[in-house]
Amino acid sequence: MKKSSNKRLAMLFDLRKCIGCMSCVIACKSENDVPLGVWRSWVKKIEKGRFPDTREYFLPIVCNNCENPICVTVCPVNAGIKRPDGIVYIDPHRCIGCRYCMASCPYGVRYIHPEKKIAEKCFWCHHRVDAGLKPACVLACPTGAILFGDRNDPESEISKAIATNAVQVIKPEMGTSPQTFYIDLDIDTVEAKKEKKE
Amino acid sequence: MESQVLYNTFQQEAFGIFIAIYFYLTGLSAGSFILSTLAYGFGMEKFKPIGRIGVVLATVLLVIAPLFLLFHIGMPLRAWHLFTYLNLSSPITWGSFLLILYPINCLIYAYFMFTEKNKLTKIFAFIGLPLAILVHGYTGFILAFGKARALWNTALMPILFLASAIVSGIALMILVYSIKERFFSKSKSINRDLVFSMGKLLAWAIVFDLFLVGCDLIVLSISHADAQAVAHLILFGKFSFLFLLVENFLGKIVPLFLLLIPRFRTLTTVIIASILVIIGIFFMRYVVVLGGEFIPLI
Ligand code: SF4
Ligand code: SF4
């Protein structure tokens, strides 16, 4: 990979290391003051197979901060904004809470804040990134399963990990070019669906 | 592979019932408007009596419809942002302008119609026609841009919405016209010929609508996995009762028989058919909006 001057932040989950402890979820909740009943990040857990040939799988989900984010395309008031470094965030003063971004994002990562009534989602803790820190979940993960950094810098840990491992994204066919990558992503874990609660 | 979800979160509903009602009302409005232009734009004299009803309905419905949008959005007091922070790639932005232009045009058109300035009425009928088509067509794009929801993400959506708008518009017109003539006119009698011609129009509109729904279903049921899942949902799953029985059987097939078979054709059956259609199309909006977002994304 050639070194390019512009930054492109990316996140990588090494699912071989994930133990499903949800530390990232808790760190995210407290860092971003995420209210009850909604999540910016969560760990989907499934059980595959039948005893004795069975295993639990974990899939941490965050906003993919897509390269080609449909949520930004459809926001009628330009509240969804993609920064030059790739982070997609929502301007809280602009959002009118129309929920169109929630309807169009293929990953279901957005929610309406129950009190503020505006859309929110994971934006890779941009307030921490701007201060030179890593996102809260990256630091909280006890097994170091989450990598975060500049994908355009060949020397960064994440570039090396992406270059030397088979990586995958969720639903690449949606064409949003997600920038959250996974090592050891399992198709059944992505596709297993629970009936919606009534 | 046999697998079981142990833990996952639930996503909030994105659109829901208010949006379904909004789509329904704009559809009725666009349909009524298009019908009123038959006489005042295209000069079909026999439809003259419904021209005025059409434009009044179109305006009133289109004033009520956006209120449901305001109920839906979290920050209604920020609605003015829609006109100051434009994003031309968003169908909602297109809609914000249509929702202003279309009712204004309706008012001008109605004014000239009621003051009997026929030339000007005609001009505004033809300005209004594309606006009416767009004001409902854009709602089809709103859904079609929801790229992960297989039921929405089809290029058929705008035209499907227009077809059902015309269907529901004609039915509403038959109903309102009959009520008005029966109870609020001097003669207290309904012009049967007019009702039957509208009934015929309604029948052909239903045929076209059924054709589009059929095309959509056939492609959905052999397309990619998500599309098959949603086809299964509306054919055999939770929405099958509403989709098959209420929307298509009671709302389209039964009215079609009532309208097309000469032996059944009386004033009463045409009115019953219109009522069934009006209810059926409401559930069409309901199934499309709520069925489309029923299957969780992750
Ligand atoms: S994952 Fe969804 S919310 Fe996040 S950037 Fe992509 S489209 Fe937007
Ligand atoms: S909810 Fe807010 S961020 Fe989402 S599309 Fe509407 S205005 Fe934009």
What does this structure look like?
The complex is a heterodimer of chains A (198) and B (298). Chain A has a single domain, classed as Alpha-Beta Plaits (2-Layer Sandwich), CATH 3.30.70. Chain A is α+β, with helices and mostly antiparallel strands. The model of chain A has no long low-confidence stretch (mean pLDDT 93). Chain A is globular, with a radius of gyration of 17 Å. In chain A, the strands form 4 sheets. Chain A has a 4-stranded mixed sheet. In chain A, strands 2-3 form a two-stranded antiparallel sheet. By secondary structure, chain B is mainly α. Chain B has a single domain, classed as Formate dehydrogenase/DMSO reductase domain (Formate dehydrogenase/DMSO reductase fold), CATH 1.20.1630. In chain B, helix 7 runs antiparallel to helix 9. Chain B is globular, with a radius of gyration of 20 Å. The two termini of chain B are 17 Å apart. Chains A and B meet through strand 2, helix 2, helix 3, strand 6 and helix 7 of A and strand 1, helix 3 and helix 4 of B. The structure holds iron/sulfur cluster (2 copies).
Which features characterize this protein?
heterodimer; A: 198 residues; alpha+beta; Alpha-Beta Plaits; four-stranded mixed β-sheet; two-stranded antiparallel sheet; 7 helices; globular; B: 298 residues; mainly alpha; Formate dehydrogenase/DMSO reductase fold; binds iron/sulfur cluster
Task: Give a count of the beta strands of chain A, DSSP E runs of length 2 or more.
Answer: 10
Radius of gyration of chain A in whole Å, from Cα? 17 Å
Q: What percent of residues of chain A are in strands?
A: 15-25%
Kindly report the CATH topology of chain A.
Alpha-Beta Plaits
Can you name the CATH architecture of chain A?
2-Layer Sandwich
Kindly name the structural category of chain B. mainly alpha
Radius of gyration of chain B: 20 Å
Q: Estimate nothing, just give the exact number of structural domains of chain A.
A: 1
Write the H/E string of chain A, N to C: EHEEHEEHEEHHEHEEH
Which chain pair shows the most residues in contact?
A: A-B, 54 and 48 residues
Distance between the termini of chain B: 17 Å
Low-confidence stretches of chain A: none
Helix share, percent of chain B: over 70%
The CATH homologous superfamily of chain B is termed Formate dehydrogenase/DMSO reductase domain
Question: Shape of chain B, please?
Answer: globular
